[in-house]
Amino acid sequence: MIEFLWWALYTVCAIWIQGVIPGADCFGPALVLCLQAGRYQNVIWLAPIWILLQEGAGSLPFGSALLYYAGLVYFFFLIRAYISTSSPMYILSLSAFAGLWHLGVIHLITSLQDIQIVPQQILLQSARIAAVFPVLWAIASLIYHLRIAPRYDRIRSPGTE
Amino acid sequence: MLGKKYKPIALLLLPLALYLGLYTFNRKTNFLDRLATITGLEAVGWIVYPGQWIQRTGQGLWQDYIALLDVRRENEQLRQRIQDLKIRAMRLRSRADEAERLRELLSFSPPPDWSCTGSRIVGEQISPSDVLETVTLNKGHSDLVRPDMPALTPAGLVGKILKTSPHFSKLVLLTDPNSRIPVISSNHRSKAILKGRGADAALSLEYVARNSPLSEGEIVVTSGLGGIFPKGIPVARITQIEQTSHSLFQEVEARPLVNLRELEEVLLLRQSRKHKPEGLALDHSSLLRLD
Questions:
Q1: Would you kindly state where each structural domain of chain A is located, as residue ranges?
Q2: What is this model's ipTM?
Q3: CA of A50 to nearest chain B CA: how many angstroms apart?
Q4: Which of A54, A109, B206, B263 has the fewest CB atoms within 10 Å, i.e. is most exposed?
């Protein structure tokens, strides 16, 4: 129950933050946090809600948020085999990927739909996503570990076990 | 061994196939677009609405109270009095400004066959998927707001409705690069298409023949072609005209008449009855076409 309330509160705060920092993505770091904590059941119910929120508030046809989060999850599992999940490099790699992947997804979807965008604006938005990602992850992770799930077990990469 | 090697590829291809299936299904039916708009936009609207109020109140308090604390240390009593008066003045000023804006909105008389309704802006770019120049309005299809409805202020045109949920809607601004508005210059009656080029860039007047008369400072108004915008709404002021030797057309820049950065309320125009567009309907070059 406390986890449900935490994620509900997180979702509300995330939307407020996204309203204050235009173009930022607050749900990517949370998704990574859930995966790191091994709370896959949370991912299953939270991801569709977050995708609907991002797609609904967005101005592109359906598909960009779904592709973005799917790519993030895939990359999470892909690099886990090479970098320890407890290493700062892990989150920095995910942040860099999030920024680049956002750039790629937006260019792909807008090209498919023949929608014109301002490239500099998307570049700036991607940089913002990459910059905000580790900060949000650190804050959410700190609160989550200290208050919500203090006894959670970190997923360790095969090399660290 | 082989299975393990190809597992990451299989795990990539299967979801990709599933995604493409969903994407194609949505392109044909628009089901997921509608679902995301009705649920996502609606939920975000309700969450952003109180958040925006808290943000404004916080900013107001910061500007009018906390940031000025050092100046007011000398006299505690007087400071308290000043603070009270300032807060009261701030509220009254805000109300007066709002009343002035609303009076202007109310004094606006819509074109014949069109009726108007006011709406507040509750958010701008809220999602990373929001890559177009859009704002979120606090009225949706339960308030009879529909896609393609023109939005304006008494100063001029703002844009048109992109999509609606029951109580909120997304408005795409005329500065968006996908925006195409058929316009006519107010003095010389030269026809053109006004194209957006992003928030910070000037608008571009396209297809103005080299021999078409135009002057800097001239206002362009909607021509009514295409049937989405009524004729005669002021849109932009011409700021620069250049004749180039290599083009059949003039290169003309314009600035919106409405300050889109400081927009707080808009009027939405609704056609009272079926309106036939004047002249030839340029459906293929229609306005703000997004797909």
A1: 2-156
A2: 0.79
A3: 8
A4: B206
